[in-house]
Design brief:
By secondary structure, the chain is of the alpha/beta class. The protein has three domains: 200 residues, Isopropylmalate Dehydrogenase (3-Layer(aba) Sandwich), CATH 3.40.718.10; 121 residues, Rossmann fold (3-Layer(aba) Sandwich), CATH 3.40.50; 44 residues, no CATH class. Helix content is 38%, strand content 21%. The chain contains eleven helices and 16 strands. The strands form four sheets. Strands 2-1-3-16-15-4-5-14-12-13 form a ten-stranded mixed β-sheet, with helices on both faces. The longest helix has 18 residues. The radius of gyration is 22 Å and the shape is globular. Bound molecules: 1,4-dihydronicotinamide adenine dinucleotide and magnesium ion. The site of magnesium ion has 2 residues, from helix 8.
Length: 386
């Protein structure tokens, strides 16, 4: 949905290239996005930020408040990957990735999975024609950080359930005891009207913009009727009452995984609670061709962040072996989000054209070819120009 008025032609894009192969793949994503946007009459101004493991090790700084508010003024954020074997896992994930996700209330995790020409897949016949997208609720469910482990002798557990969110605040307490006493743990999953309604609307808009009229609600309401029954019923209500052109169907997550492996091309928009979306989107990425092509976005009403699904791949950093296609396709998602759908489509076609026409030796190293990260980026940029 865009507001009427003169079409914007200049965009500020914040960039965190990050660590390892992050800067290598982001350089190619920028190159390709720049050409595609300019063919559409738009200019991209890149604003670079140094955050990541290297910056943290040099300066002790993770992500200052001032940078978060400055980034909030950008039209979108492109992120490479963050992480290094030299930094304890968790520090930067929480300090940068999760902080940005919460600061900008990025409630959608967008994970398309599309089969691409000549990309090796584990189910070669089945994955042909795959073109689905996981719309994962990104703020609720089992991932709210509400839980505790009892002491080792066990018996009882207390845990505050207090939370401040963009759309609501929550107050409460978990107070449990077990007899006979034994160690135990509990993690609380919450689903709210606010959370489900907005992700259901996003899924419907996504279906309509793909020219489709179906949203598959991914659930497990037979086993967890309160939590996933609520998700399912709320999503159905939004679709029925607000989107007459969209129909829903329902898939239990276990059956969905089974059918996805056997017939990945059968699905379009998959509307998922947080936990199922996390798992199903990785399954889809594996089916469609792996980390080298899997792109994603974390989207909210404020700053949205687009990134390849892969990490910083320290094992191949600096060797030129990184496949930039996932980052380049993340650039396309970014351009579509800021209102340049033609530029986004051009990039997606250029990636397909390159893969379809490349001789085996010209394919990315990941797919058995000999093209370096820069060479793959150049070849895709060249396809954009026709
Ligand atoms: P990874 O995704 O970095 O690498 C897994 C395997 O896939 C490696 O063998 C790597 O060489 C290969 N690979 C990944 N991307 C590739 C590409 N574009 N082209 C060719 N091969 C590619 O995951 P890993 O090894 O578990 O994590 C490495 C670091 O990345 C860790 O510090 C981790 O915390 C971080 N990480 C960061 C993420 C982010 O910034 N959003 C996401 C995932 C991991
Ligand atoms: Mg994951």
């Amino acid at each position: 949905m865009s507001l009427p008025g003169p079409k914007k032609s200049k965009f500020d894009i914040a960039v965190i290239a990050g660590d390892g192969i992050g800067p290598e793949v982001i350089a190619e994503a920028r190159k390709v996005s720049q050409v595609a946007a300019s063919l559409d009459g738009a200019a991209l101004e890149w604003v670079e930020y140094p955050f990541g493991a290297s910056h943290y090790l040099e300066t002790d700084e993770i992500l200052p408040e001032s940078a978060i508010s400055e980034m909030g003024g950008a039209d979108a954020l492109l992120l490479g990957a963050i992480g290094s074997p030299l930094v304890k896992p968790g520090i930067l994930e929480r300090g940068i990735l999760l902080t940005l996700r919460f600061a900008f209330d990025q409630y959608v995790n967008l994970r398309p999975a599309k089969s691409l020409p000549n990309v090796p897949t584990p189910v070669p016949l089945g994955a042909k024609g795959m073109d689905s997208v996981v719309i994962r609720e990104n703020t609720e469910d089992l991932y709210m950080g509400l839980g505790a482990v009892s002491d080792l002798t066990g018996g009882s557990l207390e845990c505050p359930l207090d939370l401040e969110r963009g759309g609501y605040s929550m107050r409460g307490k978990l107070n449990m005891s077990l007899a006979p006493a034994m160690p135990f743990a509990a993690q609380v999953a919450v689903s709210t009207g606010h959370g489900v309604e907005r992700i259901a609307r996003y899924a419907c808009e996504a279906a309509l913009s793909r020219g489709e009229s179906r949203v598959t609600i991914v659930t497990k309401s037979n086993a967890a009727p309160a939590l996933y029954g609520f998700f399912e019923d709320t999503a159905k209500r939004v679709i029925d009452s607000e989107y007459p052109a969209v129909k829903w169907d329902v898939a239990n997550v276990d059956a969905l995984c089974y059918h996805l492996v056997r017939n990945p091309a059968a699905y379009g928009v998959l509307l998922c609670p947080n936990l199922f979306g996390d798992i199903v989107s990785d399954l889809q990425a594996g089916l469609a061709g792996g980390l080298g092509t899997a792109a994603g976005g974390n989207i909210g009403d404020g700053l949205s962040m687009f990134e390849p699904v892969h990490g910083s791949a320290p094992d191949i950093a600096g060797t030129g072996r990184a496949n930039p296609i996932a980052a380049i396709l993340s650039g396309a998602l970014l351009l579509r989000h800021i209102g340049l759908p033609d530029a986004a489509g051009r990039i997606e076609s250029a990636v397909s054209d390159y893969l379809a026409s490349s001789p085996p030796v010209g394919m990315p190293v990941e797919f058995g070819g000999g093209s370096s990260c820069v060479e793959v980026g150049d070849a895709i940029a060249k396809k954009l120009n026709g």
